[in-house]
Design goal:
Blueprint: E1 13-17, E2 25-29, E3 40-44, E4 47-51, E5 54-55, E6 58-59, E7 63-67, E8 72-76, E9 87-91, E10 94-98, E11 112-116, E12 121-125, E13 136-140, E14 143-147, E15 158-162, E16 167-171, E17 178-179, E18 182-186, E19 189-193, E20 196-197, E21 207-211, E22 216-220, E23 231-235, E24 244-247, E25 251-256, E26 259-264
Antiparallel strand pairs: 1-2, 3-4, 4-7, 5-6, 7-8, 9-10, 10-11, 11-12, 13-14, 14-15, 15-16, 17-20, 18-19, 19-21, 21-22, 23-26, 24-25, 25-26
InterPro entries: Kelch-typ_b-propeller, Kelch_1
Keywords: Kelch repeat, Repeat
Length: about 260
Amino acid sequence: GGHSGDPVPLALVERFDPAAGPTGSWSRRRSMPTARHNLAAAAALGRLFALGGLGDGGDLSVVESYDAAADAWTTLQAMPTARGFLAAAALGGKIYALGGAGMADLRPSAKAERLDVQAGTWSKLPDMPTGRTGLAAASHGVRIYAVGGRDGGGRAAVESFDPAVGAWSSAAGLGVARFGCAAASAAGVLYVFGGVDVKDMEAPTSVERFVAAAGTWEPLPEIPGARNFLAGAMVEMPCAGGASAERKDAAEDACMHGGSVLAIT
């Protein structure tokens, strides 16, 4: 999905193989049934899920799942709330759709909704304490984390949802308040990178890591290129650790703790 500098939404799907040669390789896959931008995506039970976003007709609630082995898409039950600029994360065979906004007023949403992948049904959850758009989300341990975002100004807020008790709680705020950022968890560590720094409205190159034992965020080496409204994902592959290496077509691989976190624009 996305768009290429104009408001026309795209249905394109491209796959990056970081293990294919020294710089990895991209390949084109079957397009999504619904073209859209500012959608959210998450992977669960061996499938990739595309949720919501903005299309030619405005806000979308459509949910589609991708089977990589068959290179095929399936349309699922729609989200209860149509919106774009949302975030999604998967935990325990369920996908959580958080925050976002509609095109009509761009009012930041606090909504949290959950898809049971096996049952194919949605349920509404307690709202996040902080409504926001352009946030990031990731599963970390037994919780879902909502990170950063915007509610008129940028947010450093970090909140976590515990599915066992069905409640949200606040965590330590980011060192850099940002929106349009990405988050990913690798080898038991939660990372946040990129976005828009609300102090100067520039795209930061900063990366932060959540230290669970101390309940604080600490800075890490910067990513090579500043970017905002990027995506991030964890890829399990051998990695030497420490530094970042350039990847073709603006995909960069930050090697951390035996896993790889991909920052993709």
